[in-house]
Design a protein that fits this description.
Methane Monooxygenase Hydroxylase, Chain G, domain 1, 84% helix, elongated
């Protein structure tokens, strides 16, 4: 039974990697559509969200089947529980990528805002957090997971800066309000994706060390 369990765990690892890859592409394409005003690409991201939902359901069913069939313990049990939670977080990142794509469609039909924004830094940071959190899960790498946790503060700070800059723009130029609101929504979605990546990293620490660090005060 141990051999069958390990085989099934390896298959589960491949499945969570697969949905992670799909979600990373959706996020990358939604950002590309936003920056390059590519409405067709944005539409493809939105259309692809259903496939992510289906994949999430499939992985959840596999996790429940493994729990019932093998009754795993210790790190194997923690791995399956972590995959269940990560699977849900990835589906939510996919939803947020679709939300960004929706904003990209609107903004592609309107004149760009005449202000400098820190989108590149924010996007690069968020994408790195998603990628590193998934690498940490697959490699059971606690140090890599904890490095993701340290990246979240910068994204929060950039989101606050974005709010201030866009708020000032709305005051100066009332005609820019709707575009600024749509852009601010994108910033908020990116900040939420960073939070979900942090959740994944925290689940890796739980999986490997059995320690729940979510909601603990930062030292």
């Amino acid at each position: 039974m141990g051999k069958h369990l390990q085989r099934d765990l390896e298959l589960l690892k491949k499945e969570i990697l697969a949905i992670g890859s799909i979600v990373e592409k959706a996020l990358r394409d939604s950002i590309h559509a936003l920056v390059n005003r590519h409405s067709k690409l944005a539409e493809m991201v939105i259309e692809g969200d259903g496939a992510i939902d289906q994949k999430e359901n499939q992985i959840e069913e596999e996790c429940l089947k493994l729990l019932a069939l093998h009754q795993p313990v210790a790190i194997d049990l923690r791995f399956i529980v972590s995959v269940l939670k990560v699977n849900n977080d990835l589906e939510r990142i996919g939803d947020l990528a679709a939300n960004i794509a929706e904003r990209a469609i609107y903004l592609s039909d309107h004149e760009p805002l005449a202000i400098a924004l820190q989108f590149n830094r924010m996007v690069d940071g968020v994408q790195a957090m998603v990628r590193k959190s998934l690498d940490a899960l697959v490699k059971a790498d606690v140090n890599l997971a904890k490095s993701v946790l340290t990246m979240d503060d910068e994204i929060d700070s950039l989101n606050r800066e974005m709010y201030v800059v866009l708020q000032d723009e709305m005051r100066r130029t009332p005609g820019s309000i709707e575009r600024a609101v749509q852009t601010l929504s994108v910033s908020r979605y990116l900040e939420r994706i960073a939070d979900l990546s942090t959740n994944i990293a925290e689940d890796v620490v739980f999986m490997v060390e059995g320690e729940l660090i979510r909601h603990k005060a930062k030292s």
